Amino acid sequence: MKQIRLSATSNTSVKNNIVAAVVIGRNEGERLKACLSALSDQVGRIVYVDSGSTDGSPDHARAQGATVLSLDMSLPFTAARARNTGLAALAGDPPDFVQFLDGDCVLQPEWLPAALTALRGDPGLGVVAGRRREIHPDRSIYNRLCDAEWDTPVGEARAVGGDMLIRHEAVTGVGGFRDSLIAGEEPEMCVRLRAAGWRISRLPVEMTRHDANLMRFGQWWQRSKRAGHAFAEGAALHGAPPERHWRTETRRALAWGLALPAAAVLGAIFLHPLLLLLLLAYPAQYLRLALRMGATPAFFSLLGKFPEAMGALKFYRNRLGGRRGTLIEYK
């Protein structure tokens, strides 16, 4: 591995080439301004990749000193393609580490010192992530669900999300993100990262504040549908042993969101009405989940299997038809 250039001080708010940030966004408005303002004193360079904003985001980013790239919107949009575009802009003078960030997130001041300490202290560690928190968890139940979703176990991990600090040599060594994925590009990249010998860790440090802004049931439904698509596509790519990437998540979505209700209804129609009793598995599963995670999260976890199954079916339908998946938007 290459020699890492170390700063003479533990303060990461220095204008050097140790850390560069790649931020992606579209019409994030004030959220993008907050994101870039927090970054400007913490990293040496900021590359902002804009995906067809109409709210002046590119101008705001330039005003804050970011290098601005406009994604070619004549091609199908994916966050993976946007991240790769930003990564490519760093190739001429690569940093040691890249902080990937979504434009609706604000990097917390305690994150980079802790993350750099972890990476510099362990040459085999390829990428680290910390705790993402919702800025407004009390505005809606859907924001609260997101905040709970981000509360993942710390320590050795199999994957990270869109906010991460990663070694430049690690992410470029595995070819970056898979452009074609409409969701789940970060865990898929982490599969290849681990296969290349790198390790992944989640640190007990607050990393970013995120503004999901999920205020309607329809947004939550679409987001769950996108997750189901990601599960199915991830399993299709890396579901074989020993990785078994997202096979369990895909099976659960299809079992609870499709197979069980179909068996109960069709069985009752064509075989015997008592087969409707199969639907009693839902309240039983709800009670089991509620004991573990609480009543409201359990309800939405179980309900979410229906849109997840729809997302998985969309992936299979596109695959059989030889079509590329299109973005499932929820904002």
Count of the domains: 2
- What profile does the largest beta sheet have? 9 strands, mixed
Strand content: 15-25%
- CATH architecture descriptor name of the largest domain: Alpha-Beta Complex
Number of helices: 12
| Molecular shape | globular
CATH topology of the largest domain: Spore Coat Polysaccharide Biosynthesis Protein SpsA, Chain A
Determine the N-to-C terminus distance. Answer: 41 Å
Q: What do the pLDDT scores average to?
A: 93
Q: What is the fourth-level CATH superfamily of the largest domain?
A: Spore Coat Polysaccharide Biosynthesis Protein SpsA, Chain A
Keywords:
331 residues; alpha/beta; Spore Coat Polysaccharide Biosynthesis Protein SpsA, Chain A; 2 domains; nine-stranded mixed beta sheet; 45% helix; globular
Would you mind describing this structure in some detail?
The chain is α/β, with parallel strands linked by helices. It folds into 2 domains: 19-215, Spore Coat Polysaccharide Biosynthesis Protein SpsA, Chain A, CATH 3.90.550; 235-320, no CATH class. The chain contains 12 helices and 9 strands. It has helices at residues 30-40, 57-63, 79-88, 111-120, 141-149, 168-173, 185-195, 217-238, 247-270, 281-293, 295-303, 305-320; strands at residues 19-25, 45-50, 67-70, 97-102, 105-107, 125-134, 155-157, 164-167, 199-210. Strands 1, 2, 3, 4, 5, 6, 7, 8 and 9 form a 9-stranded mixed beta sheet that branches. Helix 8 packs across helix 9 (247-270). The radius of gyration is 21 Å and the shape is globular. Residues 1-15 have low confidence and may be disordered.
